[in-house]
Amino acid sequence: IVPESTDITRALDLIWVANERVVGVSALPSIHQSNSQIVSLPSPEAVDWVAEVNAGWVEAHGIEVGNIVE
């Protein structure tokens, strides 16, 4: 369930983190890119948390699976 105040008009990169390491990265399309369909992405494994950042941020900052998160 997405609260009404949530801005889902922007595409996002998701950074999946477990045990202080990046265990996956995913690209989440905006609601416009997905033809008004809400997209659900599963985590690559059990995670402690997920960071949502603007689309392109992961690539621009060289985030990769295996990176340590401090």
What does this structure look like?
With 70 residues, the protein is mainly β. Helix content is 6%, strand content 30%. The protein contains one helix and three strands; from the N terminus they run E-E-E-H. It has one helix at 57-60; strands spanning 12-18, 21-28, 49-54. It has a three-stranded antiparallel β-sheet with strand order 2-1-3, with no helix packed on it. The radius of gyration is 13 Å and the shape is globular. It starts with 11 loop residues before the first strand and ends in a 10-residue tail after the last helix. The relative contact order is 0.32.
The count of helical stretches stands at 1
Termini distance? 30 Å
Strand content: 25-35%
Order of helices and strands: EEEH
User: Total number of β-strand segments?
Assistant: 3
Radius of gyration: 13 Å
Strands across the major sheet, in which order? 2-1-3
- List segments where confidence is low: pLDDT < 50 over at least 5 consecutive residues: none
Mind describing the biggest β-sheet? Answer: 3 strands, antiparallel
Structural class: mainly beta
Mean pLDDT: 86
Form type: globular
Helix content: under 10%
What's the quick description here?
This protein has one helix spanning 57-60; strands at residues 12-18, 21-28, 49-54. By secondary structure, it is mostly beta strands.
Q: Could you give the topology of this structure?
A:
Elements: E1 12-18, E2 21-28, E3 49-54, H1 57-60
